[in-house]
Write a structure and sequence with these properties.
Blueprint (H helix, E strand, L loop, with lengths): L8 E2 L9 E3 L17 H12 L5 H6 L3 E8 L3 E2 L3 H10 L3 E4 L5 E3 L9 E9 H34 L5 E3 L9 H10 L13 E3 L1 H7 L2 H12 L5 E5 L2 H9 L4 E5 L3 H14 L4 E5 L17 E3 L2 H4 L6 E5 L4
Parallel strand pairs: 1-5, 8-13, 9-10, 10-11, 11-12, 12-13
Antiparallel strand pairs: 2-6, 3-7, 3-14, 4-6, 5-7
Helix pairs in contact: 1-3, 3-4, 4-5
């Protein structure tokens, strides 16, 4: 899935085509920037302010001379986080030109230089360097999430699995919007965005409420028809109780693959309308063991928690 955008210009670049590939070219490009909440640009300004709370002595050294800086990708990954990168430099009066669309899979090891010229930033030297680290940090982490998401989604497709790969609420405080956005660019589902987005009754809720049935009934009374109710279950007995109490989604948590698939099959046979989710310590290596026609969702907290950042650098071009 590719993501087009309107907040920065885009032009074709001359890097060899072997260094990039488009994921799922048959899909229609989607501008996920339109999903972002109204306050997201304010948050970006706060990141820049956090990095420069007082004097910018480096900015004094370089001054307002107009410069051109090249953004290079130096490790493989899926490009994500473009709107946030753009917002940093737009607020500083700089212009960003992207040479590849968001969602492109970058493969710098395929070129002799081992780096790909991804974008060009123009503006005053002090403003480019003022925004450099904030913009790079955001882009690197967003691309890391999208890369992990893309790998998981493509693994499912190679195995012919029909379901969703999803993130979880295991996001970085203050950085949730970026990480959830990057999941979408990588082709994964976001799962619930926050505590208010969907009702999820986990083991602590059940233990405190006293029973699965009682917890679901009270949750449904408050949520009405507009929110789905998901229940975390550890056994077939718990899953059956949740289904009988009209749960919409049943998460089979921390089960061994064969036990989980058997439970999912029994649930779908008895309650075909139920969405079945597999979760709990599932890794890229163990994911294929959980693929089943009866499992609709596989969620992995590591997509937004244990990801590795893609390596980017921003270099002002030396004048001859």
């Amino acid at each position: 899935m590719l993501c087009s955008f309107e907040s920065a210009s885009f032009r074709t670049h001359t890097e060899p085509t072997t260094c990039v590939r488009m994921a799922r070219e048959e899909e229609t490009p989607t501008n996920f920037e339109h999903l972002l909440p109204p306050h997201w640009q304010t948050e970006v300004r706060g990141w820049v302010k956090d990095d420069v709370p007082s004097f910018d002595i480096g900015g004094l050294v370089v001054g307002d001379k107009q410069e051109e800086a090249h953004l290079f990708a130096k490790s493989p990954g899926t490009l994500a986080g473009v709107p946030f990168f753009n917002a940093v430099f737009k607020d500083l009066g700089c212009e960003v030109t992207w040479h590849f669309p968001e969602g492109t899979v970058l493969e710098p090891e395929a070129v002799d230089s081992r780096k790909i010229h991804v974008a060009t930033v123009t503006g005053s030297a002090r403003h480019i360097l003022l925004g450099e680290r904030t913009a790079l940090n955001t882009l690197a982490r967003a691309s890391g999430v999208a890369t992990a998401a893309r790998e998981a989604v493509e693994l499912g497709r190679r195995h012919g699995w029909h379901g969703y790969v999803a993130g979880t609420r295991k996001t970085t405080p203050g950085f949730r919007v970026v990480e959830k956005y990057a999941l979408l660019v990588g082709g994964a589902a976001t799962h619930r965005l926050d505590l208010s987005n969907m009702v999820m009754l986990k083991d602590n809720h059940i233990w405190s409420a006293g029973s699965i049935t009682g917890a679901i009934q009270l949750a449904r009374k408050a949520a009405g028809f507009s929110s789905k109710v998901e229940v975390e279950c550890r056994t077939m007995e718990e899953a059956t109780e949740a289904a009988e109490a009209q749960a919409d989604i049943i998460m089979l948590d921390n089960m061994q693959p064969e036990e989980l698939k058997s439970c999912a099959s029994n649930l779908k046979s008895a309650y075909p309308h139920i969405t079945v989710e597999a979760s709990g310590g599932i890794t890229l290596e163990t994911m294929p063991q959980y693929f089943s026609p009866h499992v609709d969702v596989i969620s992995r907290g590591s997509l937004t928690q244990g990801y590795g950042a893609v390596d980017f650098s921003l270099k002002i071009q030396r004048q001859s």
